[in-house]
Amino acid sequence: MTTRSARSSAPVEGLREALRAHGAWAGVPLEVLADTGLAHLHVRLVGTGVLARIPKQSQVGLEPAANLHHQQACFARAQAGGHTPRLLGVLPVGQGLPRGALLVQEIAGRPADLPRDLDAVAQALAALHALPLPRAQDRPPLQDAGDPLRQLHAEIAAQAAFVPRAGLPVEVHDAVRTELEALAACVALPDRPPRCLVAFDAHPGNFLLRGSGDAVLVDLEKCRYSYPGLDLAHASLYTSTTWDVTARAVLTPAEVAGFYRRWERAVDTGLAAAARPWHLPLRRAMWLWSITWCCKWRTASAGPRRDPGHGEDWSAANSDEALVRHVRERVDHYLSPQAVASVLDELARLPRMLAP
């Protein structure tokens, strides 16, 4: 067994015990992968093609058992689209694994290379969005708000409560306030786009490219029934394409517009036509969600680690120091006047490029 830090050794020992109780894969060598995400520790079951996802916290605010059940549903439902890992097993919450773990297919592939892989990312998202919408009673435990746009506005407003404590420059604070007002006005309108299964965490760093050229979305814990434009935004916003160390690129407005058109060509023409008027409003909303999250993380990461019985926990104590330094640098950058001005400039230029 290889361990990366003291933080990873205890859950890996718990994983070993849980695998022994599970029966399958007991005694296989375990290899802890580099700590690259704020929500999970990943452990390879060497030679099996299986990856264990051990939660550090719940990004959707659920207690451990409910969070594990939610993640199980995310993987089980998305895998029908053919562009996500297969769910292979679930290790329950226990003393050694206080948040449980999922066993999923390990995807052999390389990081996304933008803009070259935008076609593949668009195809993968189109396959997810094309999945049949289940009956309302079959959608839990995934979020299925009566009005997903109003729910999104409420989430952003809750994150915006951290804005006063985030130490923002005046121009950034004013931009956030302006976008909040614009989103509230959008919510007040009666129209809504069609809903479908969305990842809600489709930034390029969460995709791997197989040798065949197909893109696979490997992180699915935040799936919900909402609007496809949120995934399209998250896959192509500056705050997403420059987040990950291994999949970093700055897209031009023309490349962004081309990405949206590729998605439209890959989905049903009815869905494409209904979603098109919402590309920009949802792009603005997703950016607002991202930068208010940055304000939240800047504040909450300074706190101590919470008891595993809690759900959400952004404490920096949960992750390796190198990852925390990376996230802090990205958060500081995204909340800078220069980065905010760059995104607003792109948003001002896109309407003409996205016009049919």
TrEMBL record:
Domain Aminoglycoside phosphotransferase: 53-248
Domain of life: Bacteria
Protein name: Aminoglycoside phosphotransferase domain-containing protein
